[in-house]
Amino acid sequence: MNNYQIPSDFLTPGTKSPISTYVHHYQTEKSTVRNRIVLSTHLFCFLTEGTKEVVMSNKIVRFGSESFVLITSGNCFMSEKISQKGAYSSALLFFDHALLQEFHFTYKPEIDRIIKNKNIQNKGIFQFKKDAFTHSFVQSLPFVPKHSAELNRLKLHEILLYLLETQPEELCSIFASAENNNEDLLFKNIIDSNIDSNLTIQELCFICNMSLSTFKRKFTRIFNDSPTSWLRRKRMEHAAFLLSYNKERPSDIYLRLGYESLSSFTQSFKSIYGKTPKEYQLS
Fold first, then answer.
1. What is the mean pLDDT of residues 6-15?
2. Mean pLDDT rounded to a whole number for the chain
């Protein structure tokens, strides 16, 4: 796992920060797992080879070249898997919040009407279907001069306007208010959304943008239990469901639940249920 601050890490050392919109073409021949990403701007990510997983505070999205995503600024984890051809490539369109606000202001009546009629909530990451237009849009990005602020702004406006016309509900959710501004409820929703993930305590701290000590204090106050104890109990409850109802094998689920070995998973499960996963399944 590596740590990145993007888009600044894509710049040549000594160069100035990119203009308000910035296109970067990324390629690799190696798969990566759960890189820590501090995203300082918003981002459109278009894949042309391979698949990607993005883990946000309350949502996990997996996608390939048949779709693309818009990710809002903040902390997240990204994993990339190369294709059968042994390659991963993507076009990344970064843009600052001022440009998003400018677009919202221009089309505010239409955006607000859609949000109200459909009761849309903000999600932090937004997935769109690719079509002939968006395919052509991605192909056009290499020809936009990076130094031209106006042309880059127009390209961003182009894709936003097209999505407003063709996939309005998904696009408008970026302009919707968060479901609830209560900090404790937002924190609880993040934890509840990641019970079935294999994020560690340290990784949850990163997603929440908190130090470990602050995270533990807040967690204990809200859940009246330590993070380690509470998450272990909840994940073992999920493991019991997978063993009993889905009839999955212990060896197939321990990694998904955040355990590095089957033996450590077995020990945790037995501490809760008094039986090994296999004994529990057979009973």
1. 78
2. 88
**Rounded Cα–Cα distance for residues 52 and 259 (Å):** 22
- The secondary element (H helix, E strand) that includes residue 89 is strand 88-95
DSSP 251: H
Are residues 270 and 161 both part of a single domain?
Answer: no
**Are 119 and 161 found together in one domain?**
yes
Share of the chain above pLDDT 90, in %: 48
103 with 15, same domain: the answer is yes
- pLDDT (mean) for 118-144: 89
Burial 186-217 (b: 16+ CB within 10 A, else e): ebbbbbeebebbbbeeebbbbbbebeeeebbe
Q: How far apart are CA 256 and CA 197, in angstroms?
A: 7
Question: What pLDDT is attached to residue 19?
Answer: 63
- At residue 36, φ and ψ (nearest 5 deg) are -80, 125
Select from 158, 175, 192 the last residue of a domain. Answer: 175
Enclosing domain of residue 200: 183-282
Which CATH number is 237's domain given? 1.10.10.60
Choice between 129 and 184, residue whose per-residue pLDDT is larger: 129
Q: With b meaning 16 or more CB within 10 Å and e meaning fewer, what string describes 33-57?
A: ebebbbbebbbbbbbbbbbbebbbb
Residue 276 in this model has a pLDDT that exceeds 80: yes
Q: Report pLDDT for 69.
A: 96
